Amino acid sequence: MSFLKVKGLRRRFGSVAALDGVDLAVATGSRTAIVGPSGCGKTTLLRMIAGFDVPDDGSITVEGVRLADADIQVPAHKRGIGLVAQDGSLFPHLTVSDNIGFGLDRNFNGREKLISELIDMVGLERSMLTRKPEQLSGGQQQRVALARALARKPRLMLLDEPFSALDTGLRATTRRAVTEVLVAAGITTILVTHDQAEALAFADQVAVMRAGQFSQVGSPREIYARPVDAATARFLGEAIVLPTDIADGFATCALGRVAVDGGSRTGMAKIMVRPEQIEVLPYSEKGEGITGIASQIDFCGPRYDVTITTDAAVPFIMQLSLPSRNVLAEGERVRLRVAGAAHVLGG
């Protein structure tokens, strides 16, 4: 049985359907990321799971107990759910110690010991307990917010874009630290984010949301390699989508003759190739593939951003990112080959 089940959830704000029949199942102890563009319904769904909003239709069940439907609404403070918001929402006038222990009974004998254990758990020094939030970095504030949420021993943790205000390097470091804490504690977690890479790196299960519905739910590798449609493919990363004719397990397209994963499918279709599947080889190298000319080469440190135009009656232009060790000159001819199979899109 799933730990969390969301069934047919709907929520309207006037004429706008923020959620339009959302279904989601989350396994015990797992990490789920809900990813999608701004305004697609991610935060509305999180608020409804937390108990801050009421569904117009559908239901939310945790461990077999109905928390919300059109008639029932268990109050947020009785759901056993922790929440870490985008800005941490620490109380600026309280110390780190008082922030972490805010939800704990002040007469609880083990209060100070638990607060010390929690700050250890999130990887901060105990000397920080006497500081105010303004004396902490953004990443440290987020760890304090996590410790505060953990203090109530939640059965489900909700993370609402908690890393979005952090710099790139700090964001990755904080995300890994938070993940380690949640995994060690065995807490089922849902992360809402608009950052595709963050969702793929964090989660066991990724749910892609678009216009109040999930377009696809699956493992990170599955939805990245086998998206259901072109919109989902492009949202999850750079994607080359091409019309093609499929026969005998191969597609004939602007990239030449390419193996596909469509099984016995034949006829006209669309395929997706991720840019990292395209091998750029010396023009002199023989074998399958097509040829083209490199241009608009931008050095970006560890990589080059290169525009390549294929040699064809109808040229195809693509932008690729190549390791900077692969030195190319503008106007240089190259050979292109697709590694692995292209994915046949549905529809």
UniProtKB/TrEMBL annotation:
GO cellular component annotations of the record: ATP-binding cassette (ABC) transporter complex
Stored SUPFAM superfamilies: MOP-like, P-loop containing nucleoside triphosphate hydrolases
Gene3D superfamilies from the UniProt entry: 2.40.50.450, P-loop containing nucleotide triphosphate hydrolases
Domain of life: Bacteria
Keyword Transport belongs to the record: yes
GO biological process, one term: quaternary ammonium group transport
Record-annotated ABC transporter domain positions: 4-236
UniProt keyword annotations, A-Z: ATP-binding, Cell membrane, Ion transport, Iron, Iron transport, Membrane, Nucleotide-binding, Transport
Pfam families given in the database record: ABC_tran, TOBE_2
GO-annotated molecular function: ABC-type ferric iron transporter activity; ATP binding; ATP hydrolysis activity
Record family assignment: Belongs to the ABC transporter superfamily.
Record-given protein name: ATP-binding cassette domain-containing protein
The organism of origin for this protein: Endobacterium cereale
